[in-house]
TrEMBL record:
NAD(P)-binding domain residues: 8-140
Source taxonomy: Bacteria, Thermotogati, Deinococcota, Deinococci, Deinococcales
PANTHER family per UniProt: NADH DEHYDROGENASE [UBIQUINONE] 1 ALPHA SUBCOMPLEX SUBUNIT 9, MITOCHONDRIAL, NADH-UBIQUINONE OXIDOREDUCTASE 39 KDA SUBUNIT-RELATED
Organism: Deinococcus multiflagellatus
Alphabetical list of Gene3D superfamilies matching this protein: NAD(P)-binding Rossmann-like Domain
InterPro entries linked to this entry: ComplexI_NDUFA9_subunit, NAD(P)-bd_dom, NAD(P)-bd_dom_sf
Signal peptide limits: none
Top-rank taxon, per record: Bacteria
Pfam families (alphabetical): NAD_binding_10
The protein's name: SDR family oxidoreductase
């Protein structure tokens, strides 16, 4: 039985991935700072990856390690997390390191988080371990949360959603990414594999209106990630479309 250790298991992608791995018959060890409920084929370990030696005693020879843990709001954190995982996986003799990354990183280097993700990719690539790197565009779930955070109550007007001007995304459902990630985790290491994206490219007003935001205002919001997305930089030039459209996903919410 394949033993799969998943970092960042309580996140959006982790929650979608765990049941798929269980259904495949893998023995799953889920790592998070707060342990979740155990289930057949699934055990949790409360681990803070930023702490030195956090993975000591967790990883075993022959493991598949799926590294999803990320800290987008803390500069340098993803590099430090990935370095810890790479070192621990190599020391334990893990058989396969799977890293989740972001499509179009080379065009998105204006944002510190994307610079960190690219540096983390290079750590995986230079680790000497058998690895697979999967890149995807932004998840529907992430875009939906952004819209929620960008929606403000305006007295006498009602909810107003501030949108980053000049931005088009091609988001996909986290579940679709999880399906591909599950399949890759249980196959032989493949290096950098084909990127994934959603079925359609939409600008932010289109994304907002599909989620019921009627009052929107597009502005050049001074946020690094929004600046990095401008000019179509977040829309991959060569990626495989998968999963439900934004409208189909929204209808199910």
């Amino acid at each position: 039985m394949t033993r799969v250790v998943v970092t960042g298991a309580s996140g959006t992608l982790g929650r979608a991935l765990l049941p798929l791995l269980q259904a495949s018959g893998a023995e799953v060890v889920a790592l998070s700072r707060r342990a979740g409920p155990a289930a057949p084929g699934l055990t949790w370990a409360a681990v803070d990856l930023i702490q030195p030696g956090a993975l000591a005693g967790v990883l075993r020879t022959g493991d598949v390690v799926v590294h999803l843990a990320t800290q987008p709001l803390k500069a340098g954190a993803d590099v430090a997390l990935t370095r810890q995982v790479v070192q621990a996986a190599r020391a334990a003799g893990a058989a396969h390191l799977v890293y989740m990354s972001i499509a179009g990183l080379e065009r998105l280097q204006g944002a510190p988080y994307y610079r960190d993700k690219w540096a983390a990719e290079r750590l995986v690539d230079g680790s000497g371990m058998p690895y697979t790197i999967l890149r995807t565009t932004q998840f529907h779930e992430f875009v939906d949360e952004l819209l929620r955070r960008l929606t403000l109550p305006v007295p006498g007007l009602g909810p107003l959603t501030l949108l980053p001007a000049g931005v088009t995304l091609r988001p996909l459902a986290a579940g679709a990414a999880a399906e591909r990630l599950c399949a890759l985790s249980l196959k032989a290491p493949a290096g950098r594999v084909a990127d994934l994206c959603g079925p359609e490219a939409l600008n932010f007003p289109e994304l907002a209106r599909a989620r019921g935001r009627r009052r929107v205002l597009s502005l050049p919001l001074p946020v690094p990630i929004f600046r990095a997305w401008r000019g179509g930089a977040a829309v991959p030039t060569a990626a495989q479309p998968v999963g439900r459209t934004w409208a189909q996903w929204s209808a199910g919410r």
